[in-house]
Design a protein that fits this description.
This protein is of the alpha+beta class. The chain has 2 domains: 3-184, Alpha-catenin/vinculin-like (Four Helix Bundle (Hemerythrin (Met), subunit A)); 227-460, Heat Shock Protein 90 (2-Layer Sandwich), CATH 3.30.565.10. It contains 10 helices and 7 strands. The chain has helices at residues 3-62, 66-84, 86-93, 95-117, 123-199, 214-272, 279-307, 319-336, 356-373, 428-438; strands at residues 315-317, 340-345, 352-354, 379-386, 392-398, 442-448, 452-460.
């Protein structure tokens, strides 16, 4: 799920909870408003009923018949109020209570009518009038008190519901926000981890399942970039290898000339002296030819091993052996350029897991650059040792050439950046950098103009399980 979708889902969930609580709160408020409306009506009714009882009492005491008309007028006013506010009263107290209230009012009204029609004071009629008035007053007071208590109950209940709802919404919001944020942060951390890995040169294809979010889009883009970079890098490596082959071929051709000349001279001598040679001497001549032939085969084998394109094949390797193979391959170039070598290979170094031919490519490039930067008679220093932490093997290639200006050092591994002008392709060190990084290693350069340049390669020690 996309980060945007996660945020929208989180907000929708929280808004849904708020709307749900708001709905119940509005229901309670509507009910409360209805009951308060009845209480207001009930207060008016109770005031009328109280006035009726006062007039009724005065009638019973003083026997003034005109007071009954006042009572009747109050009854009519109360009846009109009940009729006009009937719906509100029914919503508040229910239809049964409303009918009962009307019934009590009618009974009281009927007794008042009887009293009006009676020509003389009747004790029984007065008692009925008093009884019906009392019932009406008590019933009205009872339902009014119940509704007031209902309003208080609704207020208390609403307070509890709102409090618990607020706590529930807060907990849910925190939980959902935490869950969504953790998912978002997980994706962002994955992107950050990939970015840091790429910045260190560890540019690998991602084999794990690709999620359906922004992180997945980044992973898919990186895989696409990896394919493009792999194709480009392979082309760069091969291009640089071919360029290096041009340099090596000149030296190899010179080195092949010596054994070929020797074979030619041996053959001429052998032909001229054949009749005077004994069997042992003839075998000795052939042994010399065989040795020179083996020398030629070895030179050609080294050249073919270097030039033949191979896929990466990591295996446990002794770095000193690779250094010796490199020197053997480059020896003629060193001899032709009159460059001395000084070696310091620490024995019994722990093995490294490398593609031997790719590391050979890096070392050939470094030595070629060193030879081209030095004048005849200078010295090339090469050394191996265990890294300071004990978990890596270091290779040093140090020339005594003209050095690299300080302002060029930050760009020395950039593609197509060259200090040789038109003579350089600017690919060698860039390709070498990529090879070392693919081996989870590191390559650094230090240089001082007029003194020389030192390249340091670190390769992790192979620790087999």
């Amino acid at each position: 799920m996309k980060i945007e979708s996660k945020i929208i889902l989180s907000n929708a969930f929280n808004i849904g909870l708020i709307l749900l609580v708001g709905f119940f709160a509005i229901q309670d408020l509507n009910l409360m408003q209805t009951k308060l409306r009845f209480v207001e009506i009930a207060d008016d009714l109770n005031a009328s009923f109280l006035e009726m009882r006062i007039i009724e009492k005065n009638y019973i005491i003083y026997q003034k018949r005109d007071l009954l008309f006042d009572v009747k007028e109050k009854i009519d006013t109360a009846g009109q109020l009940l009729d006009s506010a009937g719906k509100d009263i029914i919503r508040a107290v229910g239809e049964n209570n409303f009918v009962s209230l009307q019934s009590h009012l009618k009974h009281y009204s009927d007794v008042v009518d009887e009293a009006q029609k009676s020509s003389h004071s009747d004790i029984d009629l007065n008692n009925r009038l008093r009884t019906e008035g009392k019932k009406l007053r008590e019933f009205s007071n009872t339902i009014t008190w119940l509704e007031r208590r209902g309003v208080n109950d609704i207020i208390s209940s609403s307070k509890r519901v709102l409090f618990y709802s607020f706590v529930a919404i807060l907990i849910c919001a925190v939980f959902v926000s935490h869950f969504i944020s953790q998912n978002i942060l997980l994706s962002l951390r994955g992107i950050e981890k990939l970015a840091k890995s790429i910045s260190k040169g560890n540019f690998k294809k991602i084999e794990s399942a690709i999620p359906d979010d922004e992180f997945g889009s980044v992973m898919a883009a990186i895989n696409s970039m990896y394919e493009e970079q792999k194709n480009s890098e392979e082309a760069l490596i091969q291009s640089k290898k071919l360029a290096s082959l041009g340099i090596l071929t000149a030296g190899v051709a010179h080195e092949l000339t010596n054994p070929l000349n020797n074979i030619s001279m041996i053959a001429q001598t052998y032909a001229e002296m054949y009749d005077n040679l004994g069997k042992a001497q003839r075998i000795e001549f052939m042994d010399k030819v065989e040795k020179e032939t083996e020398r030629i085969k070895e030179i050609i084998k080294n050249l073919l091993d270097f030039s033949k394109p191979k896929e990466a094949h990591l295996k446990e390797t002794d770095i000193n052996t690779v250094m010796q193979k490199t020197l053997k391959l480059m020896q003629n170039m060193l001899d032709v350029s009159n460059i001395k070598t000084k070696l310091n290979f620490v024995p019994d170094l722990p093995p490294v897991l490398i593609d031997e031919y790719q590391i050979l490519q890096v070392l050939v490039n470094l030595i070629t650059n060193a030879v081209q930067s030095m004048q005849s008679g200078r010295t090339l220093f090469m050394a191996t040792r265990l890294g300071s932490g004990g978990d890596s093997v270091e290779i040093k290639v140090m020339d005594t050439g003209k050095g690299i200006p300080r302002e060029y050092l930050p760009h020395i591994f950039d593609p197509f950046f060259s200090t040789k002008g038109d003579e350089g392709t600017g690919l060698g060190l860039s390709v070498s950098y990529g090879i070392i990084k693919k081996h989870n290693g590191d390559i650094r350069v230090e240089s001082k103009v007029g003194v020389g340049t030192t390249f340091t390669i670190e390769l992790p020690v192979y620790k087999s399980k």
